[in-house]
Amino acid sequence: MSFLDHLEELRWLLVRSTIAILIGACVAFAFSGFIFDEIIFAPKDGNFITYRIFCELATKYDLDKSFCIKELPFEIQSRSMDGQFSTDIWTSITAGFILAFPFILWEFWKFISPALYAKERKGAAMFIFTTSILFFIGVLFGHYLITPLSLNFLGNYKISDMVKNDIDLDSYLSLVKTTAISCGLVFEMPIIMYFLSKMGLISASFLRTYRRYAYVIILIIAAIVTPPDVVSQMIVTIPLVILYEGSIFIAARMDKKRAKLAKEEANV
Asked: What sections of the protein cross the membrane (predicted)?
């Protein structure tokens, strides 16, 4: 196809993806009460499953008991006339994006598939399934682990007893949504590494060389968002380390395939 034809295909990809997001947003809007009460505002409740698990672990192993709480020490408020309505709309759109993510992947795959070999195009179903599963696991990881840890840390952080925490609704939702989406994208690391390695932009040796720096960054992140005990930090650290090691494994396989292909071409 010509350049303009590619642009036309891209335009329709964006149109169809937008429609899918809007359909998902309508479904989410219809269940907005459940989404806000049982999902978004659930981490503010001291009875949230993450707090209960951490509290049980802390009690059992005599660790920091900062998660044995009844309620986080802050209130959520809306300070604009259309604040709650706008929040409902934009939250529904975010939920629509999460729901429509597999369809968006399918559209993206159809767009790039003409540039792939026939053997690679056969892996469409596996690509979409694996990428979607990683994204949803990342979203759950962000919401059920990173978000409550962050809320507990930030909600209890004080510069002075003179300051009372009345958190704006937009600020609270920004943390919840950004954390979930960001973790969903971070969990796509193995897929991203696969394509970067396939294009020759990154190698397993590069990832191994900078492994120690990656581990330090992961440990710093875990130390910031968790209480000062080893168990909590390891719960956050282990999944991220597994993702990084998985990326090295994928890059190593791609390196071997490139080396084998280069050897075959040299023999010819």
From this structure: 12-36, 89-112, 124-146, 172-197, 209-225, 231-252
At 100 the pLDDT is 93
CA 78 to chain centre: 27
Q: What is the pLDDT of residue 97?
A: 93
How many Cα atoms sit within 13 Å of 116 on the Cβ side? Answer: 15
CB–CB of 232/149 below 8 Å? Answer: yes
Strand 166-168, strand 75-77: pairing: parallel
pLDDT for the residue 64: 67
- The long-range contacts involving 167-172, CB below 8 angstroms and separated by at least 24 positions, are 167/74, 167/75, 167/76, 167/77, 168/76, 168/77, 168/78, 168/79, 169/76, 169/77, 169/78, 169/79, 169/83, 169/84, 169/87, 170/83, 170/87, 172/44, 172/76
- The distance of Cα 65 from the centroid of its chain, to the nearest Å, equals 27
Token pair listed for 202: 């990154």
Instruction: List the chain domain ranges.
Output: 1-187, 188-268
**What's the distance, CA 75 to chain centroid?**
26
pLDDT averaged per 10 residues in sequence order, the chain, 268 residues:
72 90 95 93 88 82 72 85 91 93 87 67 78 91 87 81 86 88 86 79 83 84 64 75 86 81 70
Count of beta carbons in the 10 Å neighbourhood of residue 141? 20
Write the secondary structure of 21-78 as one string of H (helix), E (strand) and C (coil). Answer: HHHHHHHHHHCHHHHHHHHHCHHHECCCHHHHHHHHHHHHHCCCCCCCCCECCCEEEC
